[in-house]
Structure formats: C-alpha cells, structure tokens
Amino acid sequence: MTDDGATAAVAQELSAADAEIEEMQRKVCEMEEEAEKLKKLTDSVEEDVGEGVDREEVDRRSAYIGNVDYGATPEELQEHFKSCGQINRITILVDKWSGHPKGFAYVEFAEEQSVQNSLLLDGSLFRGRQLKVVQKRTNIPGFFKGKGKGKKGKGKGKYYDPWADPWSGGYGAWRPPSKGKGKYMPY
User: Residue 6: what are its φ and ψ, rounded to 5°?
Assistant: First the structure.
C-alpha cells in the first residue's frame, strides 16, 4: 500500500511540474509573438520616418530660441510666434536627470519664410526676458570628432627644473621618485 501511495504522490508531483513547465512554455511563446509584433511595428515606423523626413530640410524650417523662461510652456511660445507663420512643433529641451527646462527651445515652422519672419522677433520680450532668435544650425555628424578625451596637457606631475641642485634632496634626505598621481609635491 505504501508503495502505491508513494508512486501516486510522485506521479502527482510530476504532473504538477509538467503543468508548470507547459504554462511557462506557453508564456514564452506569447512573449515571442509579442516581440515579433513589436519588431514589425518598429520596422514600419522606422521606414516611415526614414523616407518622409529630411533633417536638413526640417532644420531650415526651424529656429533656435534662447533665454526662454524656465516656466514657459509650448502654448505660450506658440502664442508669441504665431504671427510668423504656421508652427508644426515646439520643443523645449529639459535636463534628462532633473527634468527641469534648460532655458532654450526649438520652433519648427511649416515654411522657410516663417523662420525669416521669426528672426524679426530677436530681442523681443517674453515673460520678462529678452529672447535670442536665430536659425537652427544643422549638425554635421562627426564634425567635431578626432581629439576626444586624450591626455593632451596632462602630465604625471613630474616637473624638470634644469637649475635645481640634483644633490640637495629638497627637504632633507633622498626620496625615491613619486609613482603615479596623488602625491603632493609643491616644488
């Protein structure tokens, strides 16, 4: 009897484990299908964006607005620039860590002539601040690359004085030369 009860318990545990494994496999299949749908969706969006938008052309229709009040909203900027022409988009840049506005914005117009009209508002007052309005420049990828964060001008703290007495030893006895950074040697 005990053998039959033990085998039945083991069989029940195996069937519970099998059911759990099948449930996990079903969830994995659902996740894979959802990932495939998302991939198709992002591919279609990237195709639409890649074909329809020319960055240089958009930049020619955009203006940089500097010295924008930190409490300004896109609606207020739209009200200020609506006399220049039809506005497609207003972007107020914010700090990615704190979420606070950086103090400048970009206004994308429907036509290039609207940008020229907006340049006339350079120096105008907006929420008590004098705006700086210039045409947005087009970034050239890789234009400022090359030097990077090299060690140009950064030595290891060793200074050669050709007139120093090599036998004086500074403050007293002979010391081995400093290795690396972090040792303060005023002379």
Answer: -70, -40
Show the beta-strand stretches assigned E in the chain: 62-66, 87-94, 101-109, 125-126, 129-130, 132-135
Sign of CA dihedral 144, 149, 155, 157: positive
Name residue 15's amino acid: S
Structure tokens at 88: 């497609």
DSSP SS3 for 45? helix
Instruction: Give phi and psi for 159, each to the nearest 5.
Output: -125, 125
Single-letter residue type at 104: F
Q: Please indicate, yes or no, whether the overall pTM of this predicted structure exceeds 0.85.
A: no
Q: In whole angstroms, give the CA distance from residue 139 to residue 63.
A: 14
Q: Which residue has the tokens 């052309």?
A: 57
Q: List C-alpha distances in Å: 52 to 38, 47, 56, 182.
A: 21, 9, 12, 55
- Tens of pLDDT along the chain (187 residues)? 556 777 777 777 778 888 899 999 999 999 999 999 888 888 876 665 555 568 888 999 999 999 999 999 999 999 999 999 999 999 999 999 999 999 999 999 999 999 999 999 999 999 999 999 999 998 777 766 555 555 555 555 566 666 766 666 555 555 556 665 666 666 6
Q: What b-and-e string marks burial along 144-155, b requiring 16 or more CB atoms within 10 Å of the CB?
A: eeeeeeeeeeee
